[in-house]
Each structure stands twice: as C-alpha cells, then as structure tokens.
Amino acid sequence: MFIDNHVHIGWFSDGYHSPREVWTALQSAGIECAAVSSISTCAELYHNIVTEFCQLISLVGKDRIKPILWLSPQMIIKKWPLKFVLRSKIEWRGIKLHFISHPAFYRNRNLVKYSLEIARMLGHLPVLLHTGKWESCHARVFESVIKENPDLTFVLAHGRPIDETLSLMKQYPNTWTDTAFMPIEDLKKLKEEGLTGRTMYGSDAPINKVYYPDLATEAYLKARIEEVKGIAPEILSNCVYDK
Length: 243
What we know:
Helices cover about 40% and strands about 20% of the residues. The protein has eleven helices and nine strands.
C-alpha cells in the first residue's frame, strides 16, 4: 500500500485546499493512504480543523486517513481550542510542531514540553517536527528534545540539513524522517547509510502548487513517486503513525 505521510488540507497562502481536492489528487496518483494535517491551524481556525477532518474521513474512510494534530502555541495558551479539538471524535495519530510558522515554540521550550505531554496523553503519538533552511528549525535544534524523550518517536520532516538529520538518526533510534520536498541526492545519502527503514515517503501536497503553480498536483505526485521508486521503493510503504 502506497502511503503519503506528509499531506495537508485547509487554508494556505495560495487559497483553500478542500479535502476532496487533495484526496482526488492523491488517489489519482496511486496513493492509497495518507497522514494529513490541517494548515488551517496557522490561521487558528479551530472549527475548520475539525470540520475538514470529518469531511475527509467521511469521504475516504478512517482506515486510510491518519490525522495529525498540528499544534499552535495559541491552542495551548488559550486552552479551549485544544480542548475543542481533543473532544472531537477524531482519532489523532500524531502531533506536529512547526517552529517557523509558530516561533513561540522555539523561544519557549515549556510549550514544547507541554506538547510532548499531549502526545503521551494521546497514546505516545509520534511527533512531526518541521526542519528547514532557517537555523531555528535545523535538525540539530531538536537533538535535546529527541535525546530527553526516548519514549517518543520523532519525525524530522524534510530532513534538513541532511547531514544533521543523518547524524541524529544514527545516534537516536527514535528518530525518523520523511521525503517531503527532499532532494533526491539527500534520499540517496539515507540509502547509503542504511536508514531507509526509518524514512517515510511524504510529498507535502498540495503545497507543491505554491512552487509549481502550472503543474497539477496529480502530475507532481506521479513524478515524485517515480523518482523515489528509483532510489528506495521500500519507503513507499513505511509509516510510523500506525505504531
């Protein structure tokens, strides 16, 4: 079964991406299952988050959707938004923290600690951490979090920078990565180091529309899947959100 472990629905800078739009593109590309988070979190649209997931699960079926709870500092500080999403009937399979979208996590590690307690409370859910070009979200920034919480699984989304990601994955067996917007050369390095067993396929769809506006998401996904197949086809069925 092909699994896309990094998918979004909801509002983004280029507009709204409905559950139907996103799932149609995934299905057309041969994706059978997806781990999904709602970008509406960034706009603090809490009712949208729940509604979007309910629509997606109704459309696809709960067995093929793995909801990822994207946390924001405001959800935690205000308290009621967190209670609202946790009281929904959504069966969360992971949580997500994004230090660039929500820099308060970088400045206030107590917010991170509280988020990890939420992961534990919900059944020791995996924690998806955005990594990127800014130093505040380089992979090494998360080393202390990973080291101090060996009972939790962490996913370094995008694997940036790759050398830091490789180092952390070698040191800490509770560390994974995904291939969302990952250069093929970086995936080759993961293959060479024997780390594809802890690497998941991810596309970041439909954020591809921001960078490739003239390319349909379905076409982008198909091309990306073929690239990954050529290097490490085994990762197409890897998924930490079932554990």
